[in-house]
What does this fold into?
Amino acid sequence: MGVPPHRVVSFAARITQRATQSVRRWFDPVAPGLPDLASFARLCVGLGCRADELLGTQAPTGGVACTPQDALVMADYIQAVAATLAVRGRVGTPMRVSGDEMAPLMREGDLVLVDTSIDRLAGNGIYALQFGDQVLIRRIEQRTPDGLLLLCDNRAYRDWEVPLRDAAPQGPLRVLGKVHAAMGLQLF
It folds into this structure.
């Protein structure tokens, strides 16, 4: 966007409406901080890009075209989020949400960070699952001693009751990991 390197912090502060001290932490070469999602959304709007364009996961469809350098910056952002989860004892593997079964919490195309070190059910929560060749993100509740309920947040979809044995390691429902974070952006 033609912003000289010595003006990047003030430029980002202006479009995100954040203090320069906060924004400066995002660019710290030793220990960068992470912008909150509201700041990230304002950054997208200010740059004229969608979140998936900045993240480098989809080609631009309008507005300002993001450069490969922009995509690298956002890839660094994703890695920093994953590193933050790792510091907190969690491993974050990025995955894309497909379908709208978890809307409005998660929408199709949102990025979720999945702790893939959890390969079996570890209490109620949101999990990435594989059923046949389909990857699902579902809220799981164990309501009975021998059954699970796979819940969709979108009320247009029915909940699915699964026998506990189907979620066993050799069962047809494979646990890919537990979802610990989601990133999405809704533009108006």
